[in-house]
Amino acid sequence: MSKQSNNYSPILLTKTSSFPMYQLYATVENPKTTPQDALKIGVLTVFSWLRERARKFEGSFKEINLPEPKSFPCDVPLKSFRINLGYTIHVVYIKDEFKESWSFCLTEPDSGKEASKNSPARSALPGRLFETNIAFIIKGDGPLECGFNVVCVEPEGTTETCEVFRISPVKYMFRNERLGIKQVWNIIEDTYKIIDTKGINNLKDFVNNNKRQLPFVLIAEHCPTELEPDIEKIANDFLAVSKNEGYRMKSELSIDKVADEKVISDQALLPFDPVNLFSYKAGFAQFGVLSANKIDAYNEIFGPAFRMEEGDVQVFFPLEINEGDDKPENSRIYKHSSIAADPKGFCKKLSDFLENYPKYKKINYGNVRFVMDASIEEQQGFIDSAKSFDELKDALTKQKDDEILAVRKQGQHDVNTQKQLVAEKNKTIKRLEDEILDAEKKLEAERAKSSASEEKHARQIEILQLENERLKRRTCRPNDPCDVSSWANQEFQERLIIHQRGENLLKNLHRSDVDVQRLCDALEYLAFEYRDFRTGLLNEIERDNKCSANYNRRFEVSPSGEDSVRSNPVDFKVKYGEGFKGKPVEHKLDMHLRVGGDPKDLLRIYFFFDENKKIIVVGSLPKHL
C-alpha cells in the first residue's frame, strides 16, 4: 500500500501560450440608427450567429434565444450571465451615467478544420482553445465602438499552424444597412474607386491617418497596349484578355466612392483576377482601384517613395500598428511584371498575407473593454457600491449616536420641549395640508365649471356661426330654376351635387313651374340635416328638430321603391363616377324627398347617397318620375 503511494506522482501542468489572431476595432456611425439602437442590433447579431453555431444544443442556452436582428425594434433584455456546458459563454453588461457597454466571450476547444478548395483538412489539436471576444461600448455622446478579437491558446512549443478566420458577426454588421462599420472609411465588400484628383488627395489623407488600423490595398489599372481598330475584334480580344489575364472593373458595383464622376477607361483591367478577394477579405483590409489615366497625378501627389505604374499593387500599412514592428514599413509595392507572371499565385499570396496580418499585432481598441477587463470593472463596481453603503451606514450610525448623546446631556426637559415643538409643527403641517387640499378641491371645481362654460360658449358660437352661414346662403339663393344647379354645387361642395341630368331638367323649367325657395330649402335640408344624419353626426330627433327650426316644416325622405326602379330603369338610374374599366357606372336613384300631393305645389327630388365620398347625388327634380 505504502509502496504504491511512493510511486504516485501528480500529472504535470502544461505551459501554454496565447496570441491574437483576428483583430478589428471599428465604429458604427449610421445617421439612421442611434448608438443605443445600434448596440442592441449588434447584440442580436452576435446571438443570431451564436444560435446558429449552438443549434445542436437547442434549448440549453435560454439566455441567447432573442429575436433576429431584422425584427428590431423589439425588446432586447441586456444583462450579465455565464454559461458553461463544455463551451463557456460569458457576457458582462454595464450601464451607468457615463457609459453603456456589452462584452461577450466564447471559449471553445479546437475542433479542427474541414478540407476546402484552397486548403487541406486539419485535425483538432488537443489542448488548443479559441477565445472569441466581441464587445460594444457607448461612452458619453460618442458613437458605438466595436471590438472583435479572436485569441488562440495552445500548449507551449506547438508547431501545428492555425488558420485565421473572420468571425461572421463582422460580416453581418457591415452588411446590415442599419449598422455598417467604419475603420476611418466604411468597411465594404468592394473597392473604393480613385478616379480624380480629389479622390487621390482623400486617399493620401486616409493612408496617413493614425487612427487607421487595417491595411489598404491600392490596385492600379492597366490598359492593353495593342488594340485593333475593328470594334468587333476589339471586343473579342478584350474579353479574352479579361478571362485569361485580368479582371475587368465593374464600376457600377461601387458601394462607396471617393469621388463622384466616373472616368475609368472602358478598356482598363486589373492586373489579376481577385475572384472573391474583396468580399472574403473585407474586415482584414480595405481596397481601392486607381484609374489608369490618374496614375501620373497620383505619383505627383504621393511622391517618388510611393510611385506606381500601370498594373502595380501597393499595400499601405497602418501607421500606429506598424510602429511596433522591428523593421516598420509604410507600404509595399508589387510590380505588374511579377504579378503578370503568375496572377493566380499572386492573388493567393496577397490573400494569405492579409489574412495573417492581424496575428500578433497590437490593436488600439479605443474605449472597448473585453470580458476579462469588463468583469474586473463590474466586480469593482460591486465593491465600490458595497464600500459606499458601509461608509454611509457608519456615518449615519455615528450621527445618530451623537444626536442621542446630545439629547441625554440636555436632559429630559429639552426632550419634552422638542417633542412639543414637533407636535406643534406636525399640527401646523396638518392644517396647511388640509387648507391645500380644500384649495385644490375648489380649484378643480372652478376648472370643471369653467370648462363646462367654455364648452357651452363654444357650442353656442358654433350654432350662431352655422345659423349665420345658413342666413347668408338664403340671401344668395337664385330666383330662376335654371340657376339652382350652379347655386347648389357652389354652396354645398363635398355635401351635395346635382347630376347633369338634374341640371338639364332645371334648365327647361319656368319660374311658375316650381316654388324655387321651397326647392332650395329641400336641397339645403338634404345637404345638411339629412346628410349629417346619414353620416352619424345627428340622430333622428336632432335632424327633425333642426329641420323644423330652419325651414318651419318637415321634409319626408323615403326609398323610391324597388318596383318603380325595376319598371322604369331609364328614369331611375344615372351614370356616375368611373368603374375599374374607366367607364361611368350606373347608380339607382333609390331615395326621394317629397313635398305635397297637389300638382301645383308638388316637389320631388330623386337621389342616392355616395357612401365612399359621403355626398348626396341628386339625379332628378323637381317633378314626379
Polypeptide structure, described:
- With 625 residues, the protein is α+β, with helices and mostly antiparallel strands.
- It has four domains: 16-164; 191-353, no CATH class; 410-475; 478-620, no CATH class.
- Helices cover 41% and strands 20% of the residues.
- It has 17 helices and 22 strands.
- It has helices spanning 2-7, 35-53, 168-175, 197-207, 231-244, 277-280, 295-302, 319-322, 336-341, 343-356, 371-475, 484-491, 500-507, 516-534, 540-551, 562-567, 569-572; strands at residues 16-28, 81-84, 88-95, 99-109, 129-139, 144-155, 182-183, 185-186, 192-194, 216-220, 247-248, 269-270, 286-290, 313-316, 331-334, 496-498, 556-559, 573-578, 584-588, 591-595, 603-610, 615-620.
- The strands form six sheets. It has a six-stranded antiparallel β-sheet, with helices on both faces.
- Helix 2 (35-53) packs across helix 3 (168-175) and helix 4 packs across helix 7 (295-302).
- The model is unreliable at 226-265 (pLDDT under 50).
